[in-house]
Amino acid sequence: MEKTTEPISQQVETYLPSIYSLTLEQLQAWMVEQGEKPFRAVQVYEWLYEKRVTSFAEMTNLPKSLREKLTEQFTITTLKTLVQQTSKDGTMKFLFELHDGYSIETVLMRHDYGNSICVTTQVGCRIGCTFCASTLGGLKRHLEAGEIVAQVVKVQKALDEQNERVDSIVVMGIGEPFDNYGELIKFLKIINHPKGLHIGARHITVSTSGIIPKIYQFAEEGMQINFAISLHAPTTELRTKLMPINKAYPLPKLMEAVRYYIEKTGRRVTFEYGLFGGVNDQIEHAEQLADLLKGLKCHVNLIPVNYVPERNYVRTPREQIFAFERALKKHGINVTIRREQGHDIDAACGQLRAKERKEETR
Ligand code: SAH
């Protein structure tokens, strides 16, 4: 019987960790502890990420005793697909149930340059941005690395049916990735590994609301990953109004950290700037923003606000969005306007919400 169909109370008791949480090095160490050869870990990785099997029994080149040990100690995926929706524009939204009854959302976007997945890192979020749906119920728990990896594998398996692959990943779903730093880094290593899903670092983007100490730490990881900051305001006063995290990590200190990051990694950063009607979308704000970013190796991504029923923000008129863009360009700032996808299935930026099924079902 599949574990996920059992009542929640039993699921918790029988919960085994997901093998997707292990980096190749960790799996090699586990093999050695079991008296096995480290190359067995590579074989397991091939089954998990190239052949994408769903049971240890299928790993036919492993000795039976090893397959049994793996079955006793690990599960493969702990995610169960509850809903899979496709938007008119091809965007797909997945609702997955976790082993403890919580559920999370993952989005697959179709671009000219390929398929991109937006993954979730936490059940809920505790950052409290005033425009975002993901933070409405607070933080329930962090995801384990394997629960983030499993989102990618599950979506890849759906794409396998269409002979397509996941080309890139954005860590921009529910949650603040830097608030779950250790699991995030493990996830990045697993999906980037040539024996894992082998998604190139340059095809992975991590976005943060600005947890400054973690920006310094991330700069030292030596990964060629794209890095984005949710800026949303050109002054510290305005940023505090939109994002309470700016009180703990104020804009001037954030910019210092970003400068350090650029210097250390030599990489360009992206600033996400949501346009919230009448709040931060005037030409004067564009001028202040250009001033703030002058000389920085960066790119600005303008995101027209997405409707969240509980929030009062309104859209900036199209013409004004273009005027804002032009004002930045005039100052030599690289800028693009984010194309919106999956609107009809609430899959757009900031619209994802952790469904609290655990409480509902108890
Ligand atoms: N917690 C991370 C990852 C989220 S990325 C972060 O804050 O960076 C998703 C992006 O969408 C962030 O830039 C976020 O600020 C933005 N966003 C959230 N709600 C939005 C909304 N209603 N409209 C437009 N953008 C929104």
From TrEMBL:
UniProt-listed GO biological process terms: rRNA base methylation; tRNA methylation
Annotated catalytic residues: E105, C349
Entry's EC annotation: 2.1.1.192
Matching CDD domains: Radical_SAM
Residues bound to [4Fe-4S] cluster: C125, C129, C132
Keyword presence, Methyltransferase: yes
Protein origin, superkingdom: Bacteria
PROSITE patterns xref list: RADICAL_SAM
Subcellular location, record wording: Cytoplasm
Function: Specifically methylates position 2 of adenine 2503 in 23S rRNA and position 2 of adenine 37 in tRNAs.
Keyword flag S-adenosyl-L-methionine: yes
Domain Radical SAM core residues, every copy: 111-344
Reactions accelerated catalytically: adenosine(2503) in 23S rRNA + 2 reduced [2Fe-2S]-[ferredoxin] + 2 S-adenosyl-L-methionine = 2-methyladenosine(2503) in 23S rRNA + 5'-deoxyadenosine + L-methionine + 2 oxidized [2Fe-2S]-[ferredoxin] + S-adenosyl-L-homocysteine; adenosine(37) in tRNA + 2 reduced [2Fe-2S]-[ferredoxin] + 2 S-adenosyl-L-methionine = 2-methyladenosine(37) in tRNA + 5'-deoxyadenosine + L-methionine + 2 oxidized [2Fe-2S]-[ferredoxin] + S-adenosyl-L-homocysteine
GO cellular component terms attached to this protein's record: cytoplasm
Family the entry assigns: Belongs to the radical SAM superfamily. RlmN family.
Chief subcellular location: cytoplasm
Protein's name according to its UniProt entry: Probable dual-specificity RNA methyltransferase RlmN
UniProt keyword annotations, A-Z: 4Fe-4S, Cytoplasm, Disulfide bond, Iron, Iron-sulfur, Metal-binding, Methyltransferase, rRNA processing, S-adenosyl-L-methionine, Transferase, tRNA processing
Organism: Anoxybacteroides amylolyticum
Cofactor stoichiometry and binding remark: Binds 1 [4Fe-4S] cluster. The cluster is coordinated with 3 cysteines and an exchangeable S-adenosyl-L-methionine.
UniProt binding sites for S-adenosyl-L-methionine: G175, E176, S207, S230, L231, H232, N306
Enzyme class: transferase
GO terms for MF: 4 iron, 4 sulfur cluster binding; metal ion binding; rRNA (adenine(2503)-C2-)-methyltransferase activity; rRNA binding; tRNA (adenine(37)-C2)-methyltransferase activity; tRNA binding
